[in-house]
């Protein structure tokens, strides 16, 4: 046949083979490259630790024997939303700083990839929670995150308050011992001063008394200066005179 | 976190009588979380809405606010009469009442109420010369509400001065002045502290 006779098949097979090898090698390269990239992205450490509340909620949801009542599921969903709130706050606050660091080249690209994955995950998670909430009660999805945010705020507040108020006992004890210490020292000082000279004693007593609770060391100092002898006093006086 | 369509199945068990969830075996984090869950569940059971979900935070249930207000009023009355110990007790009850609000109610409201009550209790403690308790109460009051709480700042400062902790009092009052500058009471207290320090050293 005419057209096929005119073709030199051997010579034509060379460019065809060339094209075939070129396309084939490009394809294998790209597929291997993409597979590796996906693997590396998947093996990146997740941004957040395990989402315990989500696991609890889903475990409860899938429990069949016996079925978990709705009220517990609602509570578990609320706990899950609370954790989501704290995560979304973290993501929002970290994003700006991370962007700046990335622009300056202070952090690697994989950190940014991890972060973006976390961001996407948390968005899906929020959507999922809203859907679940709406399934329990109409329009609960609109308020569940408000409630959850108050819930976490309230927990934080009470924790902080407990921390402070629990110091009351130890403070009380400290103050009781401190007060009795000061009192006994003052009494002792008064007695001493009385036997030495009644005039100085009364001065020291009133000084110390007006500084109720000041450090005893400084009280001692005051007494020492008081009874320090005439040399110092005259010295001070001379200085004053010199200034005038 | 895993991808959206998988999760880790946890070994959870429900007590059929009490409806309490427990895990077997459990690590510490899981145990804590389940405790919180059970507590929240108990709170949710008493919520009055027909759907059994917590109501939106904004319209607050007025009964509790009224009760707290009543306790505070009687505390104030006792304080005016001079029954300071009784006033401390009543303020304590009111604080417990305010902290007993369901946790999904606005935290800002709780802060406001508790801060005022703690400040009042600090004053009643100070009137009995219980400086240590007064200092702790005032500190807690300030922690709940830092701005516009000059009384709280002043009361802890005063208590610290009375206990002779002048250094602490000075830093405390300086902090307080950063939040509410030109509060005459605080400025006065600061001058007092400086005078005392100059006198005692």
TrEMBL record, chain A:
Entry keywords, A to Z: Membrane, Transmembrane, Transmembrane helix
Q: Where is this region: Disordered?
A: 186-244
Q: Where are the transmembrane segments?
A: 6-29
Q: Which Pfam families match?
A: Sec66 (PF09802)
Give the UniProt entry's GO cellular component terms.
Answer: Sec62/Sec63 complex
Which InterPro entries does the record associate with it?
Sec66
One of its GO biological process terms is: post-translational protein targeting to membrane, translocation
Which PANTHER family is this protein grouped with? Answer: TRANSLOCATION PROTEIN SEC66
This chain's protein is named Translocation protein S66
Organism of this sequence: Didymosphaeria variabile
Q: What gene name does this entry carry?
A: sec66
Automatic annotation (TrEMBL), chain B:
One GO cellular-component annotation of the UniProt record comes to:
nucleus
GO process annotations (BP): protein folding
Instruction: Tell me which InterPro entries the record gives.
Output: TPR-like_helical_dom_sf
Q: Which SUPFAM superfamilies match?
A: TPR-like (SSF48452)
This entry's Gene Ontology molecular function terms read:
Hsp70 protein binding; Hsp90 protein binding
Stored PANTHER family: TETRATRICOPEPTIDE REPEAT PROTEIN 4, TRANSLOCATION PROTEIN SEC72
Q: What protein name applies here?
A: Tetratricopeptide repeat domain-containing protein
What are the top taxonomic ranks of the organism?
A: Eukaryota, Fungi, Dikarya, Ascomycota, Pezizomycotina
């Amino acid at each position: 046949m005419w057209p096929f006779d005119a073709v030199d098949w051997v010579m034509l097979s060379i460019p065809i083979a060339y094209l075939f090898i070129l396309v084939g090698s490009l394809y294998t390269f790209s597929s291997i490259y993409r597979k590796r990239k996906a693997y590396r992205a998947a093996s990146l450490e997740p941004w957040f630790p395990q989402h315990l509340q989500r696991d609890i909620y889903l475990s409860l949801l899938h429990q069949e024997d016996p079925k978990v009542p709705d009220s517990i599921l609602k509570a578990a969903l609320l706990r899950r939303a609370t954790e989501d709130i704290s995560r979304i706050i973290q993501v929002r606050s970290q994003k700006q700083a991370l962007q700046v660091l990335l622009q300056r080249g202070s952090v690697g690209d994989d950190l940014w990839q991890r972060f973006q994955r976390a961001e996407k995950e948390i968005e899906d998670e929020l959507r999922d929670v809203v859907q679940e909430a709406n399934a329990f009660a109409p329009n609960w999805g609109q308020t569940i995150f408000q409630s959850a945010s108050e819930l976490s705020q309230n927990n934080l507040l009470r924790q902080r308050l407990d921390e402070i108020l629990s110091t009351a006992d130890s403070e009380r004890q400290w103050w009781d011992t401190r007060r009795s210490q000061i009192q006994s020292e003052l009494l002792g000082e008064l007695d001493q001063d009385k036997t030495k000279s009644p005039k100085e004693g009364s001065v020291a007593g009133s000084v110390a008394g007006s500084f109720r609770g000041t450090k005893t060391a400084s009280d001692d100092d005051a007494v020492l200066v008081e009874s320090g002898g005439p040399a110092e006093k005259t010295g001070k006086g001379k200085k004053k005179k010199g200034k005038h | 976190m895993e991808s959206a369509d998988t999760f880790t199945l946890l070994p959870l068990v429900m007590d059929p009588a009490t409806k309490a969830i427990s895990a077997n075996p459990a690590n510490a984090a899981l145990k804590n979380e389940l405790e919180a869950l059970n507590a929240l569940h108990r709170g949710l059971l008493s919520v009055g809405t027909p759907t059994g979900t917590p109501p939106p935070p904004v319209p607050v249930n007025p009964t509790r606010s009224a009760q707290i207000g009543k306790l505070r009023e009687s505390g104030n009355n006792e304080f005016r009469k001079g029954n300071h110990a009784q006033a401390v007790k009543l303020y304590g009850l009111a604080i417990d009442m305010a902290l007993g609000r369901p946790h999904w109610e606005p935290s800002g409201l709780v802060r406001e109420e508790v801060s005022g009550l703690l400040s009042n209790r600090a004053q009643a403690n100070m009137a009995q010369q219980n400086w240590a308790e007064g200092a702790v109460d005032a500190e807690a009051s300030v922690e709940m509400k830092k701005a516009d709480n000059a009384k709280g700042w002043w009361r802890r400062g005063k208590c610290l001065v009375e206990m002779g902790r002048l250094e602490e009092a000075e830093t405390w009052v300086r902090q307080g002045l950063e939040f509410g500058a030109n509060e005459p009471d605080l400025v006065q207290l600061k001058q007092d502290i400086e005078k005392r320090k100059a006198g005692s050293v």
